[in-house]
Amino acid sequence: MSLYVIGIDYGSDSVRALLVDTSSGRELASAVVHYPRWSQGLYCEPGRDQFRQHPQDYLDSLEQVLQALWQQAPAGSSSKVVGLSVDTTGSTPVAINSAGVPLALLPEFAQNPNAMFVLWKDHTAVAEAAEITAAANDYAARAVGPNYLQFIGGIYSSEWYWAKALHVLRQDAAVRAAAYSFVEHCDWITAVLTDTTAPADFVMGRCATGHKMMWHQRWGGFPPNAFFTGIDPVLDGFATRLNADTRTSDQTAGRLCAEWAQRLGLPRGIAIGYGAFDCHMGAVAANVRPGVLTKVMGTSTCDITVASPELLADKPVRGICGQVDGSVLPGMIGLEAGQSAFGDLYAWFRDLLSFPLQLLGQSLTPAALEALQAQIIPALSLEAAKLTPGQTGITALDWVNGRRTPDASQRVAMAISGLKMGSQAPHMFRALVEATAYGSRAITERFREQGVPVDSIVVIGGISKKSPLVMQICADVWNCEIAVLDSEQSCALGAAIFAAVAGGVFPTVAAAQAVMASPVCQTYQPNAVKAAVYDRLYKQYQQLGDFVNASVAVESQGAV
Ligand SMILES: Nc1ncnc2c1ncn2[C@@H]1O[C@H](COP(=O)(O)OP(=O)(O)O)[C@@H](O)[C@H]1O
Ligand SMILES: O=C(CO)[C@H](O)[C@H](O)COP(=O)(O)O
């Protein structure tokens, strides 16, 4: 009998479920459900960079996506499922009480955004991130302890766990009084399915802890309590309450509990693997290996590669989102980088252009308005494709949502130079696409400068399939071949690969990948002439970036 597994991929807006046959890697069925509260814009304040997700959204949508999956799947599929694993966005933590319940699931906190998951792109904790960076540098300078940021790029980001926890604790006395700990989405949902949410039973995955929570084997887990209380006494006890015994995603976290077996229509007791972040599992579906950089290109980008422990030894890679033993593949160092906005930069421009439509288009139905807006990026892409590199005269930065890497900073902003009366919307759009490609190139160059080889690039995520224009400009700017992965659900497929190992179908991740990883469906080749022009234009991008960095540094010193 064929054995099946399920990969669950919690993205920024929706959750996807994928059913895969472990004997062939065939994707038998998939389904997507959007988070109901999030879709209405609840609990978010984009003007303040506040993006919160209700835990009930994750629970409701999980149940719904499995119901939708069974509608697509061949009859009798559910009884053949032997494992399930989950990936989520991150760092996306929530405050829990001493019973392990996310505070927003309690009636008194049900409408409180500080009691909800703080989504990866929530940038309300910029000040707290800077304090954590300063504290780590100070600790190391005074030789009180190691630099706890050395294996996560040297700069703590506002997108990460401790900055978010500190921000929420400071902001909200009621949450502070009730919070026992904070848990990441990928660890919590795994614990829900295995009925291990109680803090005494709670075990976390290596991915979230290593990349976002300052866990490292060098210091035996998390930094000491004194490090955190030195930043703010409100953090007292939070690190000591965390279990330092973290696990890689090939390991079995537990068995599907009776309640969730019933809610999901799955056999009770099937294996549940440890959770991880979306891009890390996507990279596994893309056969990541040393020298191969996998990029999830969507709203943001997440760039993942792996290196052998021998190559990196304990050498820190500056300015990236971490190097963590086993965060992607067991036995390898997983390295993460990325851009805080990629497709989001195009969406920003689309929204800018369509603002007057919203004001003046009262005669349009909401559906008609939405249909019109949906045509803006494709129409701009067709026109922008007619332009040649350098023709626009415009240089733009991709930092509209801050900079994730290289060298995290949410204080930097986007800038555009070279606008003239002749600059039309397609010119601007092409400049924005080029900006995102330059931002990506900066990451690859940083990896190479720091001794991490990048010989080839495999891309996954929505944009890799939606936009030949973006992909060709990337190939030309990066001056390298780009392979596009066939699977439409690469992150969920990666989760399914881990589920197959956790479920005992394969002894190792490599064995599961050999059968289940996705093939490449298309490649883009760089054009040598265009690549030479882009080499020159990339320097203008770097100069504009230097200017913005310098302005931010001056502002931070209070000189302006
Ligand atoms: N034709 C297109 N060309 C370029 N970008 C696009 C196009 N259509 C949508 N996008 C961008 O794709 C992004 C969504 O990517 P996707 O991978 O589908 O979602 P997610 O990042 O949530 O997983 C949006 O930011 C949007 O601006
Ligand atoms: O930073 C991350 C992982 O480390 C986020 O999970 C990721 O960038 C979110 O991506 P998407 O919008 O494609 O779900």
UniProtKB/TrEMBL annotation:
<keyword id="KW-0054">Arabinose catabolism</keyword>
<keyword id="KW-0119">Carbohydrate metabolism</keyword>
<dbReference type="Pfam" id="PF00370">
    <property type="entry name" value="FGGY_N"/>
</dbReference>
<keyword id="KW-0418">Kinase</keyword>
<dbReference type="InterPro" id="IPR005929">
    <property type="entry name" value="Ribulokinase"/>
</dbReference>
<dbReference type="GO" id="GO:0008741">
    <property type="term" value="F:ribulokinase activity"/>
</dbReference>
<dbReference type="InterPro" id="IPR000577">
    <property type="entry name" value="Carb_kinase_FGGY"/>
</dbReference>
<dbReference type="InterPro" id="IPR043129">
    <property type="entry name" value="ATPase_NBD"/>
</dbReference>
<feature type="domain" description="Carbohydrate kinase FGGY N-terminal">
    <location>
        <begin position="4"/>
        <end position="284"/>
    </location>
</feature>
<dbReference type="InterPro" id="IPR018485">
    <property type="entry name" value="FGGY_C"/>
</dbReference>
<dbReference type="Pfam" id="PF02782">
    <property type="entry name" value="FGGY_C"/>
</dbReference>
<comment type="similarity">
    <text>Belongs to the ribulokinase family.</text>
</comment>
<keyword id="KW-0808">Transferase</keyword>
<dbReference type="InterPro" id="IPR018484">
    <property type="entry name" value="FGGY_N"/>
</dbReference>
<feature type="domain" description="Carbohydrate kinase FGGY C-terminal">
    <location>
        <begin position="295"/>
        <end position="502"/>
    </location>
</feature>
<protein>
    <recommendedName>
        <fullName>Ribulokinase</fullName>
        <ecNumber>2.7.1.16</ecNumber>
    </recommendedName>
</protein>
<comment type="pathway">
    <text>Carbohydrate degradation; L-arabinose degradation via L-ribulose; D-xylulose 5-phosphate from L-arabinose (bacterial route): step 2/3.</text>
</comment>
<keyword id="KW-0547">Nucleotide-binding</keyword>
<keyword id="KW-0067">ATP-binding</keyword>
